[in-house]
From TrEMBL, chain A:
Gene Ontology BP terms: small molecule metabolic process
Residues annotated as transmembrane: 47-66
Domain Thiamine pyrophosphate enzyme TPP-binding: start-end pairs: 48-150
Keywords, comma-separated and alphabetical: Decarboxylase, Lyase, Membrane, Transmembrane, Transmembrane helix
Organism of origin: Bradyrhizobium macuxiense
Molecular-function annotations in GO: carboxy-lyase activity; thiamine pyrophosphate binding
Keyword Transmembrane: yes
UniProt xrefs under InterPro entries: Sulfopyruvate_deCO2ase_bsu (IPR022494), THDP-binding (IPR029061), TPP_dependent_decarboxylase (IPR051818), TPP_enzyme_TPP-bd (IPR011766)
UniProt name for this protein: Aldehyde dehydrogenase
Record-linked Pfam families: TPP_enzyme_C (PF02775)
From TrEMBL, chain B:
Alphabetized GO MF terms: carboxy-lyase activity
Keyword Lyase: yes
Origin: domain of life: Bacteria
Signal peptide range in chain numbering: none
Protein name in UniProt: Phosphonopyruvate decarboxylase
Keyword Transmembrane in record: no
Keywords: Decarboxylase, Lyase, Pyruvate
Length: 197, 185
């Protein structure tokens, strides 16, 4: 029962993950994950969550089912995924081949004062994901692992997949994307070619 | 096959789940999610049998709220089926829908309001309309099977065209008393 040892800088990890993103669609989970995705580069194909804790993977699922020809990536934290842990089971039942989930795992709730999460207290998100029925699961601790995972995102027949990415603890300066939900929604849909009605 | 049979049914009286299904089809609903529920069982079966509706079983109702948001982001219309006991599970996730003005159409079978035998169902049943309204949702009632098409159609327009969160509460009276073959305690 201890904090998982991660050394990856979360900003560098997410920058690597989103490099040369092509037609990737991204949903970011509440808190630091949203800041990380914004910091990696503003993009209309990003949907940043500022609330809805526990909902990131399910938003990713609904999107992946609606857009089967686009790769969809959910970038979230251990705490956010833990709140919606059942959603991993639901994702697995649908086996969306174009959906990938990256869990930035530092074993702590960064946004609220670094309290230990269940992951930090011993729960293994990669094992849970496998148990839920997600077969392609990676436990990543270095940039090479992220690059390899990034390459797999383009395979629209290989998902669902989940990567537990071990990041270092510690607070970073916040990078704040727009908070207006209706704007973010319309921008995202516009990116996919849907007109604002 | 179920789908063809459903379209040939006369959607009145006990066929109200078929009327709901046909109305959802008319509105182009492409995703349906649900927590299993006896009152919705026929609609769930129709949905699973329909290859043009992606049907997803949930572990808890708020997953379906988030799923509906994701579907809309991707250009699809979704509907969420649940029982009144599940409404409480959705409260915070409804913030997502109001903050982003995402459409939400949820069809809620009521417990705790008509010939309810289980006292544990009553508190959430009683709180269902106020809970939904407190989170900004519009609440419509479906009390008469013959009104199914009209009410679901109105709710769907309000949701998908009006960008609103809409819950249709389906009367427990319509679903009928829960039948027990043997006395249980």
């Amino acid at each position: 029962m201890s904090v998982p040892v991660g050394t990856l800088d979360r900003r560098a990890a997410v920058k690597t993950l989103l490099a040369d993103r092509g037609d990737l669609l991204v949903v970011s989970g509440l808190g630091s994950s949203t800041y990380d995705v914004f910091d990696a580069g503003e993009h209309p194909g990003n949907f940043y969550l500022w609330g809805a804790m526990g909902g990131a993977a399910m938003i990713g699922l609904g999107l992946a089912l609606a857009q089967p020809k686009r790769p969809v990536l959910v970038v979230t934290g251990d705490g956010e995924q833990l709140m919606g842990i059942g959603s991993l089971l639901t994702v697995a039942t649908k086996q969306p081949a174009n959906l990938s989930i990256a869990v930035l795992d530092n074993g702590q709730y960064g946004e609220t004062g670094m309290q230990l999460s269940h992951s930090g207290l011993g729960a293994k998100l990669d094992v849970i994901a496998r148990g839920a029925g997600i077969d392609d699961v990676a436990d990543i601790a270095d940039i090479a692992g992220i690059e390899s995972f990034r390459a797999s995102l383009r395979d629209l027949k290989g998902g669902p997949r989940l990567a537990r990415i071990r990041i270092a603890t510690g607070e970073l300066e916040r990078a704040l994307p727009p908070r207006d939900g209706a704007y973010l929604k319309n921008r995202f849909r516009g990116h996919l070619g849907f007109a604002v009605t | 096959m179920d789908q063809i049979a459903a379209h040939q049914d006369n959607a009145t009286g006990r066929d109200w789940p078929v009327a709901i299904y046909r109305t959802l089809k008319d509105f182009g609903v492409a995703q349906l999610s649900y927590v299993p529920d006896a009152g919705h069982s026929r609609l769930i079966k129709l949905s699973h049998a329909d290859a043009s509706i992606k049907t997803t079983v949930l572990t808890t109702e708020e997953e379906g709220v988030a799923l509906s948001a994701g579907a809309w982001l991707g250009g699809e219309r979704a509907v969420l089926l649940m029982q009144s006991s599940g409404v409480g599970n959705c409260i915070n996730m409804l913030s997502l829908m109001t903050s982003c003005r995402f459409p939400l159409l949820t069809l809620v079978t009521m417990r705790g309001e008509w010939a309810e035998f289980n006292p544990w169902q009553i508190p959430m049943g009683k709180a269902t309309p106020t809970t939904l309204e407190a989170m900004g949702a519009t609440v419509l009632r479906l009390d008469n099977p013959d009104d199914a098409e009209e009410v679901i159609s109105a709710a769907a327009s309000l949701a998908y065209d009006g960008d609103q969160q809409v819950a249709v509460l389906i009367s427990q009276r319509m679903i009928g008393r829960k039948k027990w073959t043997t006395e249980t305690h």
